[in-house]
Amino acid sequence: xxxxxxxxxxxxxxYYSSSDNCTILRNVSYALKFGFNVVYILSSKSKTEKxxxxxxxxxxxxxxxxxxxxxxxxxxxxTAADAFKVMDHESVLxxxxxxxxxxxxxxxxxxxxxxxxxxxxxxxxxxxxxIATISCVPGHPNRTSENEQFLIVDATKKLCGYNQGYQQKxxxxxxxxxxxxxxxxxxxxxxxxxxxxxIPPSFVENFDFHSIEDLxxxxxxxxxxxxxxxxxxxxxxxxxxxxxxxxxxxDTIFEVPKTIRVENFTSESESETDSEYLEDYGxxxxxxxxxxxxxxxxxxxxxxxxxxxxxxxxxxxxxYAYNIDTDRLGHHVIKAILVLHSKIAESKDPRxxxxxxxxxxxxxxxxxxxxxxxxxxxxxxxxxxAIEEFFSTRVESLGYLKHTxxxxxxxxxxxSEAIIEWHSNLENEKVSKSVSALVTWLxxxxxxxxxxx
Length: 453
Fold this sequence. Notes:
With 453 residues, the chain is α/β, with parallel strands linked by helices. 48% of the residues lie in helices and 15% in strands. It has helices at residues 4-7, 21-33, 47-61, 80-90, 110-123, 199-205, 212-220, 247-253, 272-278, 285-304, 308-321, 329-345, 350-363, 365-371, 377-392, 401-410, 416-424, 429-434, 436-452; strands at 12-16, 38-43, 69-76, 97-101, 105-106, 127-135, 149-154, 159-164, 181-184, 187-195, 229-234, 239-240.
């Protein structure tokens, strides 16, 4: 059994969410980067799903987990109340802890937040909760009718009034001295809290508590002796409340700080295939490492049928870890797909190889479309350069070049204009000849469309 004094030295994070594994992984990695050495994960996922999540943590976080405790509780959790009751039953929270809730991603500095909470505790022993809020003006995409908030805070940032959700009229408790408080409409709850160890027992003692909001409202009641105070702390950082649907927000969130990097600890020894395609990047260690992470993500995604949205999240996170130019992302992704195809289809006959190529490009079309766009011709040029590099050094695969370009055209990743312009500047005669028939056809199609107009 762990001694209480040992637990008091732990930096604990509790994460309650039934989000996709990628979102959970990023948030846990972020907590580990800030020195939290004990992380609990609670969700409504099944035991089988949790077993898969454990394996993914070991695979993707690797050495980050050394000396750390990552505990995925088997109980199925459906509300915040369930989460806190389980934690109280486990009797593992004897010190203040960080609590993440819901389907969120944020780059809030967790250590600063903890220090602010400790500073409050030194002045107010009855403080049980600090809510991390983020500046978010009305009309921002992250504001919804559900998370609209109206907060009343005093000079010490103690919460004196709290209304959650959109309302035409907001009630202000008559006990609040309006002259000595601030009314705040310009912030939202980040879903990150610093909690006192008093909070889990509160959910056991009050059966009508189903969420953190219920606890907050109870603490603000003025018709009884109040011994629990709630504070807010406006933190620096960015937030998205639905990372699976807001990839632009995800990109912005993980642009800073650099500590968000999720290392992919793989074996130092590389296979022959690894060595072959990594040579294309020369001495550029960042691009080489980024490309390898992209390849690993796409290989696992294709094998396990991971949703494209989750793959895009992984690639976007790796992009900022290695500071890769946005316009170059399509270059890395298409090259990884071509290498993956050659690896998977090498044992198949020509017909089987072509069928696998068609299947693969269709599967990754959404990922490709994210990074190769018609509006930015440079992304198409970089994609075509990667294709040229791949087939120029792999003559045995040259027969599939025209099929590759045709498929990318069919799924609206490459335009006919981009392919025709690229072909006109080709210096490699073998590459040029292998796609000449396709280019001629594209030119005829373009001319026909112009005549019709």
